[in-house]
Amino acid sequence: MKVLLVDDHPVFRSGLARLIETVFSRPLLLQAGDGTQGLAMIRGHGDIALALVDLGLPGDPDGLGLVREVQRLRPKLPVVVISGSEGDDIVRSVKAAGASAFLPKSASAALMIDTLKRHMPAEAFPPDAPSERGVAPGYVDTEGLTTRQIEVLALVCEGRSNKEICATLGLAEQTVKAHVSAIFRALRVTSRTQAVLAATKLGLLPPP
Questions:
Q1: Which of 86-100, 143-157, 178-192 bottoms out in mean pLDDT, i.e. has the lowest?
Q2: First CA to last CA across the chain, in angstroms?
Q3: Is the peptide bond before 61 cis (omega within 30 degrees of 0)?
Q4: Cα–Cα distance between 207 and 123 in angstroms, integer?
Q5: Average pLDDT of 134-142?
Q6: Intervals of CATH 1.10.10.10 along the chain
Q7: Is the pLDDT score of 130 beyond 60?
Q8: How confident is the model at residue 203 (pLDDT cuts 50, 70, 90)?
Q9: Strands, E assignment, 84-165
Q10: Are 35 and 6 a contacting pair, CB within 8 Å?
């Protein structure tokens, strides 16, 4: 089963890919950094089962443009749009373009999993996975971490300082500090080193 992730931020793509790999049964993940690459993969892989598209893609097509092209080329392919922006107008425009669902990047990992689960084909789930959750054995509960916090955690695991994380993600330093504190609470740790060890041990992220 193939899943396409289209997002111009490699750290976010990596975190989301890891989340999908820990939950679903051996997905083949295809990744693209912009709409042009994403469209090429849609055209080149007729067996893609689900596409996740960032609304804020640079270039042409942008996120909405890519959703419209997917709707034209593969009208039955589920497309979940993810975005750092929220609002009723955004949701309406995403739905009008033909997306199956909308997820803000502030959504918890649990909400993201539930949404993807509703749009994944049945073969995405292993036979012995709990049917009420549709997740694979060994799935690690992220304790309510948002996708943005998973993104911050990935950078912490790379040894980035708060200021470097601010520059990479375009966030205020106070916001990054709040995310790091939330990550520490969720992982039940008190230092960055412990957070890296805990995240690696729990399988939330690839080894640093």
A1: 143-157
A2: 27
A3: yes
A4: 28
A5: 37
A6: 147-202
A7: no
A8: low
A9: 101-104
A10: yes
φ, ψ of residue 2 to 5 degrees: the values are: -105, 135
Q: Which residues of 126-159 are buried (b: 16+ CB within 10 A; e: fewer)?
A: eeebeeeebbbeebeebbebbbbbbbbbbbbbee
> Does the domain spanning 147-202 belong to CATH 1.10.4030.10?
no
**What's the confidence (pLDDT) of residue 77?**
92
Whole-number Cα distances in Å, 23 to 15, 44, 105, 178, 181: 13, 26, 18, 27, 25
- Secondary structure class of 53 (helix, strand, coil): strand
pLDDT at 123: 52
Q: CATH 3.40.50.2300 spans which residues of the chain?
A: 2-124
Return the CATH number of the domain spanning residue range 2-124: 3.40.50.2300
Structural element, H or E, at residue 96 = helix 88-97
Structure tokens at 2: 């193939």
What are residue 146's phi and psi, to 5 degrees? Answer: -80, 165
Residue with the larger pLDDT of the pair 127 and 1:
1
Run of H or E residues at 70:
helix 63-73
* pLDDT at 72 (0 to 100): 93
CA gyration radius, the chain = 17
